[in-house]
Amino acid sequence: MDIQQRRSYQALTLATLAFAACFSVWTLYSIIGIEVKERLGLSATEFGFLLAAPIFTGAIFRVPIGFLAEKVSCRNLFFWQMLLAVPPLFYLPHIETYSGYIWIGFVLGLTGISFTIGIRYVTDWFETKRQGFALGVFGAGNAGAAITLVLVPFIVDIFGWQQIGYAYGVGMIFMAVLFRLMAPEVNEYYQKQRDSHDMAFHMAPLKDLQVWRFGLYYYFVFGSFLALILWLPHYYVSAYELSLTQAMALTLLFVTSSSMVRAVGGWFADTYGARAVNWTAFWICMVCLFFLSYPPTTMIIHGVTKDVEVSFEVNVWVFTFLIFIIGLAQGFGRASVYKTIYDYYPHHMGSVGGIVAAIGALGGCTLPIMFGFAVDVIGVYSACFMLLYGVLATCMVVMYFALRAERHQKLLRDSIANNFLEQD
C-alpha cells in the first residue's frame, strides 16, 4: 500500500469516527426525550416535536454547508462544527422547561451537518470505482446512534441523568482534537479544482428534476431510518410495555445492523448498479411495512352453530425481525442513493449531496411529528407504519415512471443514431 492509499484510508477512518460522534449527539434526544416526556407529561405530538428539534436544524443547514464545503477546507469545517456542539451540551443539565429543550435541540442539531461535510471530504480521496465503498463506509457512521443507546444508560446508572451533557461535551472535545491532529488535508490538485469553479457551477445541477427525485428516495431510506431511531425506544415502551433497557437493546440491533451494512451496500452498488440495489431495497421495505401497519385486530365470525373469534397481532419478536429487515434494506438504500448521485454529479458532491442530505434529514424531522399526530388522531400505535407505507409507495411510483421515461429516451436516442448511420 503506497503513501496516498494510506492517507486515503486514514482520512476515511477519521471522518467516519467524527461523523459517528456527531451522529450520537444528533440523536441524543431519542433517549433523554423519553425521560423528558415522562417528567413533563408530554403528549405524543409534543414528544414528536421534541425529537424533531435537533433534526430540523441539522437538515436545513446541510444546504448552505454543502455549498460552503465546495469552497473551503472540509477538514477545518469538521473541526469547528464539532467544537460548536460543546457549549449546548454543557448547558443541557440546566434545562427544566419544554421550550428550553426545544431551543437547545435546535443548537445541538448543527451536529447533523457533519454528514454533508464528511461526504465532500471523503470523495476527494477515492477514485470513481471505489466511491460506493468509500461512501458506504463513511455512512456507517450512522452507528453513532448506537453509541447513544449504549452510553446513555451507562452514564445514567453511574452518574445520573444530569451528567449526560457533560460527558458528551468532553467526548466531543476529544474527538475534535483527535480529528484535527490526525486527519490529513486534501492534496493541492483537488483544492485548486475547487477554487476554479464559481458558485454558478455548483448551483447548476439544482435545476435538474432528478436531483429532487434522489432527495425523495433519501427522504425514505435515511429520513425514516432516522425517525425510527428516535421513535422506536418510545414505541417499544408504549406498545409492548418493555423496560427502557430492553427497548434500547432492540433499537440498538436495528441501528447497528442498518449502519454496518451500508458499507456492504456501497460494494453492491459498485458491482451490480445503484438503481437495481435501490429498487430491491424499496420492495423489501414495502413487504415488511405491509405487515407492520396492521394494528392488533380481533374479528368475530358468526358461524352456523357458534361464533368464531380470529385475532391477529404482530408480537414483539416478529416486529423486531421485520424492523431488522427494514433496517438492512435501508442501509443498502442509503449507500445506493449516494452512489447514484456520484455517478451523475461527481463534481457536485457538496452542493447536490447537501441538498439530498437535507431532504433526507427533513424526513427525520417531519416524520416523528407526523408519527405523534397519527397516533393521537387514529389512536393506534401502528399508525406510524401506515404513514411510512404511504411515503414508500410514493417513492416507488416516482422511481417507476422515472425509469420508464429514461428507457424511452434511450430508445429514442438509439433510434435517431441508427437513422443517421443508415443515411450515411
UniProtKB/TrEMBL annotation:
It is found in: Membrane. The chain crosses the membrane at residues 12-32, 47-65, 77-95, 101-122, 134-159, 165-183, 216-236, 248-269, 276-294, 314-332, 352-374, 380-403. Residues 10-407 form the Major facilitator superfamily (MFS) profile domain. One of its GO terms (molecular function) is nitrate transmembrane transporter activity. Signal peptide: none annotated. Gene3D superfamilies: MFS general substrate transporter like domains. Pfam families: MFS_1 (PF07690). This is NarK/NasA family nitrate transporter. It comes from Shewanella atlantica.
